[in-house]
Write a structure and sequence with these properties.
Strand content: 15-25%
Order of helices and strands: EEEHEEHEHHHEHEHEEH
Distance between the termini: 16 Å
CATH topology: Rossmann fold
Number of helices: 8
Radius of gyration: 18 Å
Helix content: 25-40%
Shape: globular
Oligomer: single chain
Largest sheet: 6 strands, mixed
CATH architecture: 3-Layer(aba) Sandwich
Number of strands: 10
């Protein structure tokens, strides 16, 4: 197991080059509450996520993995440190600019499919572009739909699709804008084993064949084994990482953390 090392934090306003990866964190702290009841969710977290790689974040309950993902995605603020998405620093970015950046350059795949029941699969896939007032790249839509096996399901509404097909629609929606990164929050948590494996395989293909950068939070060693890299957390800190690991190796590493 490789121990993760923190990188120096560039000072605010520094002219140092911005990180070139998909996402980066430097010296990030995050707490909830104050005084004796304060919960220190993130403690001096510095981490780089390379482009075109599939990374899983794991750790015991309360380790800070979900908080880290929310902060990296700009869904939650931080107390100290700096964050970048695709070379753009999001630390202190005004709400309107942050919302626009998330809409245009970040994709999300959640445990709940979050599809609009009255819209077709195609309309759900293209919804973020429609809300932004943009135009859909039809060739890219065809390629994504074909890659995810949705070509003959685009006219169906969510209730006419299986759970796996609905999650494929969610993945297609995340891919459509060619974002800098896709964040997955337990994306197979509501799926059976076979369907979950199918969706994880699609995420891995999205990274390897379509050049997508993916960061996934999961508690499942089998799910994490589909990733190129597994980052391990405990008590709000980075404690190690694994490359191209088996479920057994990941489970062993988690056992050492008390997970």
């Amino acid at each position: 197991m490789t121990i993760a090392m923190n990188s120096p934090v560039p000072p605010a306003g520094s002219t140092s080059p911005a990180p070139t990866g998909a996402v980066a964190a430097r010296g990030v702290f995050k707490s909830y509450g104050s005084g004796e009841t304060a919960v220190h969710a993130l403690r001096d977290v510095s981490l780089d996520f390379e482009r075109e790689r599939f990374t899983a974040i794991m750790g015991p309950s309360g380790s800070g993995k979900s908080t880290l993902m929310h902060c990296l995605a700009g869904l939650d603020s931080i107390d100290a440190g700096r964050l970048w998405i695709g070379g753009t620093e999001i630390t202190g970015l005004p709400d309107a600019a942050l919302t626009r950046l998330r809409r245009e350059r970040v994709g999300f795949v959640f445990q709940a499919f979050n599809l609009v029941p009255t819209l077709t699969a195609e309309q759900n896939i293209t919804l973020p572009v429609a809300l932004a007032g943009g135009s859909v790249d039809q060739e890219w839509l065809k390629q994504v739909s074909s890659t995810l096996g949705l070509t003959d399901r685009l006219a169906h509404r969510p209730h006419e699709l299986s759970g796996g097909q609905q999650q494929r629609v969610a993945v297609a929606r995340a891919l459509l804008t060619r974002p800098d990164v896709i964040f997955g929050d337990e994306p197979t948590g509501n799926l059976d084993t076979a369907t979950g494996a199918e969706v994880l395989s699609l995420l891995r293909r999205s990274s390897r064949e379509m050049g997508q950068s993916i960061i996934m939070v999961t508690h499942d060693p089998i799910a994490a084994s589909y990733a190129d890299r597994v980052v391990l957390m405990k008590d709000g800190s980075l404690v190690g990482e694994l490359e191209q690991s088996t479920p057994e190796a990941i489970l062993g590493a988690l056992a050492k953390l008390g997970a």
